[in-house]
């Protein structure tokens, strides 16, 4: 299993620090967060893609996953007017183009909140229309989308393994797959392992962190209440060999370099117990 460093927590540091640390600390790849000041898709298109490619080459550290920011201002394809949806879709198409250009295997998408007054049929229609258009574009440029379920604290759209499976039943494509951030199922009392059984070959990526058990906070592996050692044992049992990013977001933004080192050290120690 390949372990990745997520760059969101480095957004107050130069992006180069994330690549340097991934190399120093023994990560296998980068999951690149696409928000200013780092790797925002329009900025990449304007020339910053060359900086990212230089870092990949200099530190011999591939970007396996590109994760453009689109859960809040200004882009969220699940809320607002049709023009707002259109803007978000165009932005994500550009993100896929940039993800492919930097050599990423996936561009990651996670449908954000659709608004409190939006009905379930309206939510589902907008989700399927949007994901079908994005998947059609993924097929056109031959670059895969990974779809992520969020917690119910973050979204009212796609929050469970069943939701992901429902999307895949309506949009059949080799260029659309799924993943599990293990915090949402854990805090929602859903089975983390159910993702593997329900999604089967569509289950192609993980976000591995720990949890406080009550919120969507992402905690350093081994420092929360999630049964991570046993989860790693089950991953070995089922033969999972895909990617797994340690998704430290902003809880450790004051010292990302220190916590990125601790995070992979803790996770590797848990893996050695398997």
From TrEMBL:
**Residue ranges of every copy of the Xylose isomerase-like TIM barrel domain listed in the record:** 19-268
- A Pfam family found in this protein is AP_endonuc_2
Q: Which domain of life is it from?
A: Bacteria
Q: Which InterPro entries match?
A: IolE/XylAMocC-like, Xyl_isomerase-like_sf, Xyl_isomerase-like_TIM-brl
Query: NCBIfam families under this entry?
Result: PRK09856.1
Protein name (database record) = Fructoselysine 3-epimerase
Species this protein is from? Cytobacillus praedii
The protein's gene is named: frlC
């Amino acid at each position: 299993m390949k372990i990745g460093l997520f760059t969101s927590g480095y957004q107050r540091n130069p992006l180069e620090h994330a690549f340097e640390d991934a190399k120093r600390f023994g990560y296998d790849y980068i999951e690149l967060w696409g928000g200013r000041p780092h790797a925002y898709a329009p900025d990449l298109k304007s020339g910053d893609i060359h900086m990212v490619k230089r870092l990949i080459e200099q530190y011999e550290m591939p970007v396996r996953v590109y994760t453009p920011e689109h859960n809040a201002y200004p882009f969220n394809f699940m809320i607002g007017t049709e023009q707002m949806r259109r803007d978000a879709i165009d932005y994500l198409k550009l993100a896929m183009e940039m993800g492919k250009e930097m050599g990423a295997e996936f561009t990651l998408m996670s449908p954000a909140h659709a608004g409190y007054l939006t009905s379930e049929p309206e939510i589902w229609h907008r989700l399927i229309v949007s994901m079908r258009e994005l998947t059609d574009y993924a097929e056109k440029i031959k670059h895969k989308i990974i779809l992520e379920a969020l917690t119910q604290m973050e979204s009212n759209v796609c929050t469970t393994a069943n939701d992901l499976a429902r999307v895949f039943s309506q949009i059949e494509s080799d260029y659309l797959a799924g993943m599990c951030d293990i915090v949402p199922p854990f805090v929602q009392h859903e089975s983390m392992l159910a993702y593997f059984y329900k999604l089967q070959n569509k289950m192609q990526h993980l976000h591995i962190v720990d949890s406080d058990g009550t919120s969507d906070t992402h905690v350093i592996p081994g420092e929360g209440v999630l049964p991570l050692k046993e989860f790693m044992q089950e991953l070995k049992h089922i033969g999972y060999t895909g990617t797994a990013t340690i998704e430290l977001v902003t809880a450790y933004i004051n010292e990302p370099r220190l916590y990125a080192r601790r995070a992979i050290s803790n996770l590797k120690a848990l893996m050695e117990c398997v």
